């Protein structure tokens, strides 16, 4: 693990000052283990991010990294630590529409993305769909819908996306699940669910939908999160970790 303290951004330097990169070139320093987790801090920021698991196929190209905003909450950092261990967003599951409702038009930037699609003379129905379901289109125009697109996750091959089919029941309480207001207007969402990007579906005993309710920001891992970590990592001192 390599930890870099958060400092204000400075002009680019010709020589690399990070111990995990070779001087003068943006390539991995062979003296540092390739599976090292690089932890960097960002001053005066509430935003954090992380790579999803260590991918050996990315040797020399994409380090395993956790970037922590100094003003990030413990819950946000715990969410990013889940990514570090290989966990993806729960609401990206291919069965998510049975449990939550995604209102793409409430994601910030939707109107701009829709405008771009319309300017391309795309039929109205497709113009509504593409910003929400077409990852390449959304990414090209800086729209945040890829954080919600179902049935996709970054595969082991750089730049490629594959299907997400995690076994087990849907866990709306997972720390990897977004709150209702994520990537939306917080105040508007709390004032009316009509303005929330993501809502939990309420069902009766027969399984029929009877309404929706807000999803709060989870402050600790769920029992399902803990079970996932125990399943994928050695957690007992006397356990056989060779497999």
UniProtKB/TrEMBL annotation:
Matching SUPFAM superfamilies: Metalloproteases ('zincins'), catalytic domain
Q: Name one GO molecular function term.
A: metal ion binding
Q: What does the entry's cofactor note say about binding and number?
A: Binds 1 zinc ion per subunit.
Peptidase M12A domain residues: 68-108
Say which domain of life the source belongs to.
Answer: Eukaryota
> Required co-factor?
Zn(2+)
Give the UniProt keywords, A-Z.
Hydrolase, Metal-binding, Metalloprotease, Protease, Zinc
> Which GO biological process categories is it annotated with?
proteolysis
Concerning Gene3D superfamilies, the annotation shows: Collagenase (Catalytic Domain)
InterPro entries, per the entry: MetalloPept_cat_dom_sf (IPR024079), Peptidase_M12A (IPR001506)
Q: What EC number(s) does this enzyme carry?
A: 3.4.24.-
How is this protein named in the record?
A: Metalloendopeptidase
Species of provenance: Didymella glomerata
């Amino acid at each position: 693990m390599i930890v870099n303290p958060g400092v204000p951004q400075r002009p680019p330097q010709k020589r690399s000052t990070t111990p995990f990169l070779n001087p003068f070139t943006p390539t991995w320093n062979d003296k540092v283990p390739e599976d090292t987790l690089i932890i960097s801090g960002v001053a005066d920021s509430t935003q954090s991010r992380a790579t999803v698991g260590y991918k050996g196929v990315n040797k020399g190209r994409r380090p395993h990294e956790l970037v922590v905003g100094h003003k990030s909450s413990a819950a946000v950092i715990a969410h990013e630590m889940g990514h570090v261990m290989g966990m993806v967003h729960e609401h990206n599951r291919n069965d998510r529409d049975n449990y939550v409702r995604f209102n793409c038009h409430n994601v910030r930037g939707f109107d701009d993305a829709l405008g771009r699609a319309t300017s391309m003379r795309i039929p109205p129905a497709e113009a509504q769909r593409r910003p929400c379901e077409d990852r390449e289109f959304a990414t090209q125009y800086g729209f945040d819908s890829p954080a919600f697109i179902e049935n996709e996750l970054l595969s082991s091959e750089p730049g490629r996306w594959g299907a997400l089919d995690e076994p087990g029941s849907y866990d709306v309480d997972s720390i990897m699940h977004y709150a209702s207001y994520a990537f939306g207007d917080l105040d508007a969402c709390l004032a009316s669910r009509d303005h929330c990007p993501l809502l939990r579906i309420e069902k009766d005993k027969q399984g029929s939908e009877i309404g929706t309710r807000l999803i709060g920001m989870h402050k600790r891992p769920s029992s399902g999160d803990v079970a996932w970590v125990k399943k994928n990592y050695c957690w007992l001192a006397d356990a056989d970790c060779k497999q």
